[in-house]
Amino acid sequence: MNAPHADALVLFGITGDLAYKKIFPSVHAMARRGELAVPVVGVAREGWDRERLLARARESIAEHGGGVDERAFGALAERLRYAPGDYTDPAVYDRLREALGEARRPVHYLAIPPSLFPVVVEGLGRSGCARGARVVLEKPFGRDLASARSLNRTLHSVFDEDSIFRIDHYLGKETVQNILYFRFGNSFLEPIWNRNYVERVEVTLAERFGVAGRGKFYEEAGAIRDVVQNHLLQVVALLAMEPPVGPDMEAFRDEKVRVLKSIRPPAANEVVRGQYAGYRAERGVAPDSRVETFAALRMHLDSWRWQDVPFFVRAGKRLAVTATEVLVTLKRPPQRRFSGREFDSGAPNHFRFRMGPNMEIALGATVLAAGGRGASENVELFACRDPGRQVEPYDLLLGAAMAGDHLLFARQDEVEAAWRIVEPLLEHSSPVAEYAPESWGPAATDALIEPRARWHDPKG
Ligand code: BG6
Question: Does position 103 have pLDDT exceeding 60, yes or no?
């Protein structure tokens, strides 16, 4: 990777929610590490002055960035410029050019609603602000395969693929990247990581909170577009991919695409959609909404490694706990007795990867139970990491985009392959069942995995 480092950071939508919750804290963290050496230009419609923007930045860092470090904040304030204006008005791009000064390789981060992506991308192109620049955008990349392709055409009319960085913040989570380290950094796993030993794989993204003021957004998205098409399928790809061959970064993304292409789109009886009781009373939600706040899928991968191993994926709001967790269950050992003793302790071996809120990796094993009677029991051999030591995903991804490193960003063919899997499930094709808040979703979810097993419900 020999890409030159960016020499300016442009934040479109600097007065918005994403900037408030994630981007200011990340830029502040960069400044705290002494890594913020470039001008930061905020762009937004609001006619604020710099003082008001700085006050907003301070508030954001205090609330979401673990507190203001005055030295780092001073460094950020010194570099922060503001270019206000309507994105459809050419004058805003003139202001931006002026604010960019001598910078020749800016990164433009589009923290704006997807409907504005084309306007801004075209504005950047017309004004010359795209020359030598990179562009960073957030999922959702389109709302189906056709719109994802159309967005891509717009992007490519101005930027080449090397200059486009598509953020799926799950890829920036250390706990998610750790799946790769655990899989490919150890030699004990590979011999068993396949259909000969693995019984099934479960991925759960559970959230105890509801749509939290984002009712309007959720009405347009639903759980499948919001987190399944992107975050959860990325996790599945990392769990199921082949080891990349060669040092080339694209080899890694090639293998992820191959997994996504191997996934059969789930049939109607392999999907459960649910909506929590009370969702329809949320602000911005239609009183007769049929949008899902919960989805569970059974998926099959047509590949040599995974044939006949079901992958169960589940995501929902207002569930019993907030936790993101993977459970890989192994087949039972062939012999359950030895020396005249029963060896069956109930649960087969498993690997458990907890990816949020904290990080844990556990191996579920059978051991001799204490007490001298020869009974066995299940235990977990366990490793965990203090969440305080993890770098925030946005911090890491922003730094990577500025350094021109694509490894942790989604490539267009990945995005399209993921839409191909979920597209048949969109547009409310299956019924949506109501579920009680703080439950594990609609009762029908159990039927996806039974009778051979029951869902693994992560602990809170
Ligand atoms: C976002 C979704 O992409 O991911 C949210 O839009 C969801 O609805 C969030 O809550 C989950 O991310 P995390 O990092 O909190 O697990």
Answer: yes
CA of 72 to the centre of ligand 1 (A): 27
pLDDT in tens, 316-350: 999 999 999 999 999 998 877 776 776 666 789 99
Q: Are 273 and 314 in contact (CB under 8 A)?
A: no
Please state whether beta strands 432-435 and 271-276 pair in parallel, antiparallel, or not at all (unpaired): parallel
Write the DSSP string, 272-289: EEEEETTGGGSTT--TT-
Q: Rounded CA gap, 451 and 174, in Å?
A: 35
Closest atom of ligand 1 relative to the 211 alpha carbon: 8
| Confidence bin at 190 (pLDDT 50/70/90) | very high
pTM to 2 decimal places = 0.95
Bridge partners (DSSP) of residue 297 are: 271, 313
- The residue whose CA is least distant from atom 10 of ligand 1 is 207
Judge whether 231 counts as a catalytic residue.
yes
Q: How many helices and strands in the chain, by DSSP H and E? A: 14, 18
Q: Which atom of ligand 1 is nearest to the CA of 221?
A: 6
- For ligand 1, atom 9, the nearest C-alpha belongs to 227
CA 458 to each of CA 69, 202, 226: distance values in angstroms, whole numbers, following the listed order = 36, 11, 21
Tokens of 127: 């004004």
**How many angstroms separate the CA atoms of 204 and 327, rounded?**
9
**Residue 428 in this model has a pLDDT that exceeds 60:** no
How does pLDDT run across 108-143, given as a tens digit for each residue?
A: 999 998 889 999 999 999 999 999 999 999 998 999
Q: How far is the CA of 30 from the centre of ligand 1 (A)?
A: 22
Identify whether the C-beta of residue 136 lies closer than 8 Å to the C-beta of residue 110: yes
Residue 17 neighbours by CB under 8 Å, 6+ apart: none
Question: 202 CB less than 6 Å from ligand 1?
Answer: no
Contact (Cβ atoms closer than 8 angstroms) between residue 200 and residue 329: yes
Tell me what pLDDT residue 301 has. 98
Q: By three-state DSSP, how is residue 200 classified? A: strand
Strand partners, 42: 11, 82
Name beta bridge partners: 203: 313, 326
The answer, yes or no, to whether any atom of ligand 1 lies below 6 A from the CB of 226, is: yes
**Tally of residues, the chain:** 460
- Active-site annotation holder among 28, 108, 169, 231: 231
Residue 11's Cα: distance from chain center in Å?
Answer: 20
d(CA 113, CA 309) in angstroms, rounded, equals 38
Phi, psi at residue 190, to the nearest 5°? -50, -45
Cβ 222 under 6 angstroms from ligand 1: no
* 227 C-alpha to ligand 1 centroid (Å): 7
